[in-house]
UniProtKB/TrEMBL annotation:
This is Aminopyrimidine aminohydrolase. GO terms for cellular component: cytosol. GO terms for molecular function: thiaminase activity. SUPFAM superfamilies: Heme oxygenase-like. The lineage of its organism: Eukaryota, Metazoa, Porifera, Demospongiae, Heteroscleromorpha. Residues 9-216 form the Thiaminase-2/PQQC domain. Gene3D superfamilies: Heme oxygenase-like. One of its GO terms (biological process) is thiamine metabolic process. InterPro entries: Haem_Oase-like_multi-hlx (IPR016084), Thiaminase-2/PQQC (IPR004305), Thiaminase_II (IPR027574), Thiamine_Salvage_TenA (IPR050967).
Length: 224
């Protein structure tokens, strides 16, 4: 069993909470309110930009050129494909690009992106990969699960969101990232393995918190 599978089983209770959160099941059956989904899309726009900054550190830190290329592909897919899709989805939901650009990170988005970026700055390429793995792999599982349960008939826009995360290109990138974590772990010492595990577990917690913050439409205590 590779290291990524070990991480996945250690994080199983968190991933289970994610996949059964009312926000996620509400996308699946179309019952989620549009207001909550709009809030989520705006926060996710902010998240994806910072996510790309973390991946960029993977390009810099990966020891071999082939892996640098894969980190670069992951940035390209996220920054160009996923973001373009995101902006076009948002337009369909009545959110303008100006609104996206003006979105301020919520406390949870702020904390999650700081965790990713700090870890990516301070850690090895293995830690960069481990801190972003719950994002790619987690969304793959959610995309596959919701797709398998059937698209919501009453909410075709949520159906498009599900299809995007069920896409083979998205799955392929998550598979490469898992493979990279597995290979990196083979030569890593105990301290680095512990740091990779910590990075993965904390990101898994924040993935759950991100859905929950969107469900609550979380804001800062004092509006400014
Ligand atoms: C919060 C979050 N995690 C992961 C992904 C997948 O890219 C995303 N779009 N948003």
């Amino acid at each position: 069993m590779g290291f990524s599978n070990e991480l996945r089983s250690r994080a199983a209770p968190i991933w289970e909470r994610e996949q059964t959160h009312s926000f996620v099941t509400g996308i699946g059956d179309g019952s989620l309110s549009l207001d909550k989904f709009r809030y989520y899309m705006r926060q996710d726009y902010v998240f994806l930009i910072e996510f790309c900054r973390a991946i960029a550190l993977g390009v810099t830190k990966a020891p071999h050129m082939t892996d640098m290329g894969w980190f670069a592909t992951l940035i390209h897919e996220t920054l160009n494909s996923e973001m373009a899709l995101h902006v076009s989805f948002c337009a369909d939901f009545g959110i303008t690009e100006e609104e996206l650009l003006a979105t301020e990170p919520s406390p949870t988005t702020w904390a999650y992106t700081r965790h990713m970026i700090n870890t990516a700055h301070q850690g090895s390429a293995g830690e960069v990969a481990s801190v972003i793995l719950p994002c790619s792999w987690g969304y793959c599982e959610i995309g596959q699960k919701l797709y398998g349960e059937g698209l919501p008939a009453n909410q075709p826009l949520y159906g498009r969101w599900i299809e995007a995360y069920n896409a083979p290109e998205f799955q392929q990138l998550a598979d490469w990232l898992r493979g990279f974590v597995d290979r990196h772990a083979e030569t890593a010492g105990p301290a680095e393995l512990a740091a990779m595990e910590r990075a993965f577990m904390v990101s898994s917690q924040y993935e759950y918190m991100f859905w929950d913050a969107a469900w609550r439409m979380e804001g800062w205590p004092v509006g400014i």
